[in-house]
Records
---
Amino acid sequence: MIRFSGDYFDGQSSRAHPVTATFADGQLQIEGESIALTVARAQVEVVPPAGTARGVIHLPGHQELHSSDHVALAELAKLGPGSSPERWARVLEGRVIYALGALVLSVLILFAGLRWGVPAGALLASRTLPDSVDRHIGEQSLRLMEKVSLEPSTLPAARQRAISQRLAALCQQRTTHTPCPTYRLLFRDSKLFGPNALALPGGTVIVTDALVKLAQHDDEVLAVIAHELGHVQQRHSLRLALQSIGAGVILVAVTGDIGSVTDIAAGLPSLLLQNGYSRDMEREADAYALAWLDTACIPPRRFADLLGRIDQDASDTHLMSSHPGTRERIQPFQRPAACP
Ligand SMILES: [Zn+2]
């Protein structure tokens, strides 16, 4: 039994009624001058005293009982629903829900970081990093590929020279319209890559022998090179490299596995070759190529013709494979030259 004194407020007026309260058998009895009240413990809420403030017991109908008996109120609070197993279960359930909520939130933040944060960071970094970073990554990738998947070209030197010189001449005559970025053109043989072309960070454009052999006109090769120059101009491959490294950094932060970063960095050349570029990047490179071909008086359909042939060849190259909408994509190229 707990007994204490306090002031009762009836919830109607601000008048305090001195009372005596007794708690026994799950009932709180309040007695005073013309006051006799019995309330079940479950219906009262005890707010224990804090500092010098008096404790408050909330009763049904906005009635209140105020008391400075710290000991009694603390005991009453302990006997309340706060100590029942059901109450604890409710609290724990609440915590489990909080924990699950926090977990879901973490996963969402991680996903958003990978989905939007990393590409945005990579874009920003690709615009601000000095050219030397491009060149360094490009050289590393080229060295790796030359070890693994690239052989010296077997194309006649005259054919290589003809394409290189034509490209150089077209780039030199350009002024304000679609200027060529700094580039280096390399011909390489590759069983792995098939008819393909790719732009490395730093401006190295690799054209495979198979692509040149599949072309029925040098302008077709130049059209594909123009597309690659579009990737160079926008520093797409650097963005791709930074994205894969950025994703790796996040994965390491989460998993603590440093090995995954090296894996991703080593996998960069294959990233560049497979479905690495986003559709937006391909669209940008296409737009650049279209403008470039118009300025060069090369019929844009040369690009469409060669891509169509690669498609028939069913080769898995980045020029075709990553784009479900190939037909829609090459549509703008299916027209004659912009100049006579
Ligand atoms: Zn491309």
---
Amino acid sequence: MSLVIRDIAIEPNLVLAPMEGVTDVIFRRLVRRIGGCGLTVTEFIAAEGLKRNVKKVLEMAEFDPDESPLSIQIYGRTPASMAEGAKIVQDLGADIVDLNMGCPSKKVCAHSGGSALMKEPELARDIVRAMRAAVDIPFTVKMRSGWDHDHKNAPEIAYMCQEEGAEMVAVHWRTRTDKYGGVRELDTLRAVVDKLSIPVVANGDIVDAASALDTMAQTGAAGLMIGRGAIRNPWVFREIEAAMKGEPIPEIDFLERKRVLLGYLEDIRDRFHSEKGTLGRFKKISGYFTKGVPYGSELRQGIFHSQEIGEAIDVVESFFDGLPDRLGPRHAPFVPETFKADSFQPQVAK
Ligand SMILES: Cc1cc2nc3c(=O)[nH]c(=O)nc-3n(C[C@H](O)[C@H](O)[C@H](O)COP(=O)(O)O)c2cc1C
């Protein structure tokens, strides 16, 4: 399967999911350096904030000069502000602008944004139409399979998006009421793929080569979007890429994990310029990143209790340096175990 959004080839056909508080320029850089990801997407950005030039909001839209293809995702409730937001995204230099129609958070839904739009097809159409008319760059939409189990209307909404000029849709198999739980059901995604002629990207609980190949086979999607699996294991893209090519899965040793974690810390320190901001973000990301690492809870505790950046660095170094001895001579390279979605609740879905 190949994924081409208008004339932008997404190679490989693996997309980093937008994640608020996670997929900022630094995390996306980490993923791009590791490789295997064909398209990065920013966290959701309020169109209203872009319009009003809010510094914090503009920072969320920052990207590296060599970051391409890049999609900037926006959310909002009025067609006019979403159109304006899309235009700003285009002017900032993004390759693609994406509409958030999937976020379940109360903050976003309360303003009729995110997944609430799936309950209001007329408003959704107006927003899609306005955004499409505002920009020349490719325009895509990310949604859930529906609002709830009685309203799995992603096929109809996605079709409307296509007819209004969207050039790719990404669909998370959960409904809004599933939040981040629910029982995996890919039939609705399959129905979207069957109904549309534009590319469809499948999303939800893809965490390793096996879940990726299974999702691809069950849905026939043109590409896959990976969120939490990439925070826990940013090598997941390379693993899936290898599996799709029928190549052996690359093995990641602990030294590489240590190098990437400390490199991430350096990068956020440069960005946040504050001990508190750096430590806060590092604690959050390393909490995900160290899940599945042997004795990982010790590492998480150590990082969590660090008062200073230097202390956190010492904790990471001594933990990873001591790991081979603790595991014995036959210690295996890191192979992530499949995680349960329920144990991985995002902070955004209050
Ligand atoms: C911490 C976190 C923040 C998220 N923020 C966004 C967001 O800004 N925009 C969006 O469309 N979806 C957001 N999502 C949903 C993800 O993009 C994705 O659809 C969902 O996590 C399912 O994919 P996964 O199982 O691969 O994580 C967020 C998810 C998480 C875990």
---
Amino acid sequence: MENKTNQIIQNATSEIEKAKTKQELFEINTHYLGKNGQVSLLMQELKNCSKEDRPRLGAILNECREKVDTLLKEKIKKLEDEELEQKLNAEKVDVTIPVKPIPFGINHPITIIQNLLTDFFVKRGFTVKFGTDIETDYYCFEALNVPKNHPARDAQDTFYINEETVLRTHTSATQIHTLEQQKPPIKMVSTGSTYRADEIDSTHSPFFHQLEILVVDEKVSMTDLKGIIEELAKFLFGDKTQIRLRPSYFPFTEPSAEVDATCTQCGGKGCSLCKGTGWIELLGCGMVNPKILENHGIDTNKYAGYAVGLGLERIAMLRYGISDLREFYENDVNFLKQFK
Ligand SMILES: [Zn+2]
């Protein structure tokens, strides 16, 4: 029996050493340790041995089984390690190979201006408020002092979803939502898409973007309004930029003003862009009509407010020197990718 087990160990060791695949090792395992394998057959022979010898021979057989089993497991581990190493070598990344450039998308110029302006106001303590593109007639017009049949509605003809629901003509609707939700002090900035039933030309589009600010606080005056617009104009077009306010009319502000900035092209000397005047229109603004504040329970003896609204397309056109608004929406990648 001892000779036989020694022989088994010797043969198995040599076969395991030579084995090159896990399949071969599986076959060796079956041949020696399987149900009808050589070790198992010897186990069956134990019955024929004398009772005294059985424990000792049994131990020798177990030892033989364990030895072959260990050798098999070691070899399997070795083959697996080799396999892994080969795989790693084969998949090694050659860092010297030039990388194929992945084309990244970039922000649309309107988004760039939107982010730039929102950042400008957020850094000055304004909170961003989000409105919705679809508004009720009330928030878009009525609450902003533009009742039905008001002439201002003609200038803001929009797309009606039904009699009471419209695509908003301005971001100003967000002012009303803010006044409903918040008590002064209020400092909010809101921006997004706006719609009007306009024919498309170089300066008009039925789809455009606005940004709006609203400030309601104690001791707020026209001087504060002028101050922040001046700061904004210099931020956008350079420190030498000057502004001027011209009286204007908006139903929801009183007094109202249009703000011009010194021409971004000629600096004020006069050129074709500014039609020789040296000034270009920048935005609209005004002190919030006290009626609107009072409608929202704000004491106008204590509080006042101002609002500024501007078109992002206009700012982008001035900043980037673009003369035709349609270029923003024609999806010409070569045009769009020049803006950073
Ligand atoms: Zn000019």
